[in-house]
Structures are given as structure tokens and as C-alpha cells.
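Re: NAP structure - here you go.
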Amino acid sequence: MLRIVCIGAGRLAGHLMPQLEQAGHRVIQVYSRTRAHAETLASTLTAAEVPDSLRHVDPDADLYFLTVPDDAIPDVSRVLASRIHGGIIVHCSGVAPLEVLAEAARRGIFYPLQSFSPGRAIAWREVPIFVTADDPAIRETLLGLGRQVSGQVFGLDEKQKAWLHVAAVFANNFSNHTLALAEHICASAGISFDWLKPLIRLTFEKALDAGPEESQTGPAVRNDVNTIQQHIELLRQHPEWQQLYALLTESIREMAHRSGRTPG
Ligand SMILES: NC(=O)c1ccc[n+]([C@@H]2O[C@H](COP(=O)([O-])OP(=O)(O)OC[C@H]3O[C@@H](n4cnc5c(N)ncnc54)[C@H](OP(=O)(O)O)[C@@H]3O)[C@@H](O)[C@H]2O)c1
């Protein structure tokens, strides 16, 4: 059983800390910028105390989880590192490198690749968790911890981790943004976004089942020049959408051409 201190009682901590307790560990303290938020999270845990400041954090814990915003990690880590006696300081960011924990003698990254929000249940066994550490023993400890909560736990070096995050931005943020644009287009034309929902569901199902490149359909992959021209013409009132349409169309065409699906 690991004795864990949680710093930052936000969206990730609200899901991760109870899960670590379910795996048999003990969260002994929760500290957060807003005491009431720390108290709310502590109330969901077995016996977590809420210290008054970072300087009152237990110096003898095994693990210090920094579930604070990425920008706050270096400062929190610096204060902690000067006070603790040998526990591992861990951050959970997909972007921040190990270097942001430079002052920690023992450090690692424990990055769950999922979007966490309050009140939205998480199927933890399916959440991929990525572990990065420069010390092999710490890496093993964090991999072991990860396997207790998820069926998908992987060690990554820093370079792979940086690429993973770029890929996640394309998969999550950009695809979500194009859905948001579709919603705006529907609104500006006075039509219902709901009509697109069966298509959206099937698009994601097919991309996951058969692979996204293989599943691509539509005017760009068919190289249907007249339709593309009509769409570009329709979008002339919205130059930023028009520009994005042209860029994405070109990207789809290029990929289809390289894989031999269209003559290009
Ligand atoms: N949410 C996700 O989907 C997700 C997924 C994977 C990884 N992560 C990573 O997890 C970390 C936390 O993200 P999050 O989304 O949980 O953030 P969040 O919801 O914004 O929560 C951050 C928490 O840290 C507290 N905090 C801020 N500055 C602090 C400081 N200097 N000292 C102590 N506490 C401080 C906040 O204060 P208050 O007490 O005022 O609320 C808040 O409770 C980030 O590194 C993020 O990249 C998040």
C-alpha cells in the first residue's frame, strides 16, 4: 500500500484519487489552492487530511501526485522537493516534460489519456496510462500502480510522449472543432445539427473499426471537383471556414493520392 499525497483537487484528481484508493492505496492528504475544493475531494476518500498550506504537507509520503494545471507544476514541485524526504513527485500532464520536476530527487510522469470532467463516470480499465521516468525503479513502481487501475499501461520516452499529445490534439480537439463548425453552419442555415448525429456516430465507429484512412468518404477522396467548388463558393461569406475547408480537402486528397485511392 502506497501513502499518497494529492496536490490539486480538480477534474483529474476527483477521478484518480478514489480509484487509487480502490486499488488498495491510501490518500493521506489533499492540498489545493482553494481549501473547500480539497475538503470536497477529501470527503470522498477514506481518511485524507487537508493541510493548511503546501508547507504542511506530510514529508514522508511515498508518492506526491501533482494534479495541478501544467503551469503550476514547476513551482509546486520546487516547494515540495525542498521539504520531502524521498517520496516520488509525479505529474499527470500530457505536455509537460520530466524537466519541470527538475528539483525533485525522485520523479515521474503518470499520464492518463482521457478527458476527465466532474460527474462523468470513467471506465478506468480502458483508460490508457503512459508512464515516463528516468529511474528504472520509479518507472516500475508507476507502471505497477497504473496496472492496478487500467488494463492499458505503457512506458514512453519523452519524445514519444510529445508526439502522442500532438496526435491526441488531432484526434480529439480538431475533430471536435470540425463538429463545432458543422453545428455553426447548421445554425446559420437554420437547419438542425441533430440531423447529422447518426452520420457522426457512424463516422467514429467506422474510423475505430476499419481505420480512419480506409473509412474516408466524400467529395475530397472522390476528387469530385464540381462539388468541392460549389462548397467553396457557398462558404465565401465565411472566409475562415472556407480556408479550413480548402486545407482539409487538400490534405484528404493528398493522403488518398499517396495511398492510391484517387488519381489526384
Ligand atoms: N482533466 C483532464 O481531462 C486531464 C487528463 C489528463 C491529464 N490531465 C492533467 O492533470 C493535471 C490537472 O488537470 P485538471 O484538468 O484536473 O485541472 P483542474 O481541473 O484545473 O484542477 C487543477 C486543481 O489544481 C488546483 N491548483 C491550481 N494551482 C494550484 C497551486 N499552485 N497549488 C495547489 N493547487 C493548485 C486548482 O485549484 P482550486 O483548489 O482553486 O480548484 C484545481 O483544484 C494537468 O497537469 C493536466 O494536464 C488532465
